[in-house]
Amino acid sequence: MIESFKLRNVEFNNRILVASGTFGYGDEVPDLVDISQLGGIMTKSLSMKPRDGNPNPRITETASGMLNSIGLANIGVHKFISDKLPTLKKHDTKVIANIAASSVEEYCSVLELLDAQEGVHGFEINVSCPNVKEGGLSFGTDVTLVTRITKELRQRTNKPLIIKLTPNVTHISEFARACEAEGADAVSVINTVIGMAVNIHKRTPKIATTTGGLSGPAVKPIALAKVYETVNAVKIPVIGIGGIVTWEDAVEFFIVGASMVQIGTANFINPSTGITIAHGVKEFCEKNGMDNVGSLVKTLQTNRTISIVDSWL
Amino acid sequence: MKQELVQIHSFECLTAEILELTFISEYLSTHAQPGQFVNIRVDNNFPLLRRPFSIFNIDENKVSIVFNVIGTGTKVLARKRKGDTIDVVGPCGNDFLSLADDSFDTAVFVGGGIGIAPFPFLTKRYPAGKEIITYVGGRQKELIVEKGLKNAKIATDDGSMGFHGTVLELIKNDFSTNAPKNPRFFLCGPNRMMKVVAEFAKEIGATCYASLECDMACGIGLCQGCNIEMVTGDKKYRLVCKEGTIFETQSVKFS
User: Fold this and answer.
1) Domain B2-92 is classified in which CATH homologous superfamily?
2) Among this protein's residues, is A129 annotated catalytic?
C-alpha cells in the first residue's frame, strides 16, 4: 500500500497533514500524539517579529464549528528557528513553515530565513493577512497581490511552495490559476470562512474582533465545493482543508480531487485525529482493492453539466 | 497528560442546581494536583468542543467534577448515566500547591457559586500546619456547595443562606473584627467577584491567586484561544489553559 506523496522534491510519509494554527509548533502534544505518523505539520503562522495577537475573547463555538480571531499570535521567525525547530526536526515527519506577513517584503524576508534551515521542508503562505501598506485589506482577496507574492517567493526557494487560499472571494479558481502560473507547487483550499456570532443579552459580538474565521464541520461542504472548483481549474496538487473530522471526510476530499488533506479544528478535540484518519484512509483503500491512496484522487463520478460550480467558472 | 475514555461511577445532587459527577481514572487520580482541570468531550458530535472542569475531588481511583446545568455541554453531561463513558483529557493547567511559597499562615479560599470547584481537593491536599478559611458566595442557596470545604462561611445575595450580601462584604466584616493571621488568598469564581476580592487582598497586603475561567477550544495550548491580558511581565497575553489557569492576581487584567 503506497501512502506517500511527493510534492516537488519532498516525499511525505502520507497525505495527512495538520493545519497551521491547530497544532502549535508540534511541541504541545508529545504525550498525546506520535507526530511521526503524520505526513507533515504546517506550523503556526510565522511572522518576522513576534505578534501578541488579538484581545480576548478570541474564540466561540457555533453550530458544528467555531469562530476564531487569534490574530496570528506567534513567537516570530527567529525564536522559532532557535527554540522550536531543533525539537521539531527530531520527528520523522515533514515540517512546512506557514508564513504570515504584513507586506510582500516581509513574506520574502521570513521565507529567506527559513529556507536556509534544513529542518524546514517547505512553505505554506497564509495570504489571509491584512496588507498594512494598502489600507489593511487582505492580500488573499487581490489576485494581483497573490500573483506578486507567489512570484517573489518562487524566486527565493527551491523547496515546495504552497499558497493557502481564502474562500472569501468570488472565484477561488482565479487565485489558484495565478499561483500555478507563478510556479507554486500546490494550493491549500480553504482557509477559514468569515463569520460572526452575537451575544443577545449583551448585544455584543461573541469575539473581540466582531468577525472571525469559521472552521470545523460546518464549513466542510463549502470546502469541498471550493476544492472541486479548484481541481477543475489547475493541474498543480490541491491540498483540501475544511471540517475534516473522520477518515470518511478525508476520503470525500480525495474523491473530489484533493491530493493531500489537512486536519484543523478536529485537532482541538482529538490531537491524534490525523493519525486515526491516516489509518482509516489506508484501510478503506485496501478494502477497495487500491494499492495507492492516489488511486482515490479525483475519481468523482458526476454529471458536470448540472454543477453550479461550472457556471462560476 | 493523557486522553482516555473513563467510566462514570456516580452522580450526586449537591444542591437543587448543582451536580457532582464522579468517574474512574487510575491515571488522573495519581497524577492530578489541586487547581488542575480536565477537558471533557461530553458527547461524540454535539457540542463540538470539549468543556473544561476543575477537579473537585479525588478519592482513591475516583475523580469528580461539579457543574450546574446551564449551557449545551452541561445539559448533555447531565443526561449521562452511571456506566456511560466520557472522553477526558487531563490533567491540564498549573496547580495551586506548586505556585505558592510557604510564607503565610492562613489560606483563605474564596469561591463564587460553582467556583468552589477546586477547593475541596485543595483542602484535602493542603499541607498541615496552615489554617484554612473558606468563603462561599452565590446568588441564592441553590448555588452554595459546602461539601469538602473547611471552615466554610456563606454569603448569598438574596439572604437565603448565611450572610445576606456579597462575599466581599462578608470577608470585610470578618477581617475587621477578627483578621486571620498573615493570610493568602486563593480565588475561583466570576471575574467581577475575583476582581474585587483581589483588590481587597492588595489593600491589606496579602498575596492573592485566582483560577481563571475562559472559553477554550483545546485546553492544551494548541488553539491560543483563551488569552488573558497581563499587566506585568514581558508578555502581553498568556494562555489560561496552559500558563494558568492560576495566576497571581496583580499580574493579570480582569476583563
Assistant:
1) Translation factors (2.40.30.10)
2) yes
- Judge: B221–A28 Cβ closer than 8 Å, yes or no: yes
pLDDT in tens, chain B (255 residues): 999 999 999 999 999 999 999 999 999 999 999 999 999 999 888 899 999 999 999 999 999 999 999 888 999 999 999 999 999 999 999 999 988 688 899 999 999 999 999 999 999 998 888 899 999 999 999 999 999 999 999 999 999 999 999 999 999 999 999 889 899 999 999 999 999 999 999 999 999 999 999 999 999 999 999 999 999 888 999 999 999 999 999 999 987
CA distance B162 to B171: 13
Note the pTM of the prediction, 2 decimals.
0.94
Chain A residues close to B225, C-beta within 8 Å: 57-59, 68, 70
For residue A295, the distance in angstroms to the closest alpha carbon of chain B comes to 30
CATH architecture of residue range(s) B96-211:
3-Layer(aba) Sandwich (3.40)
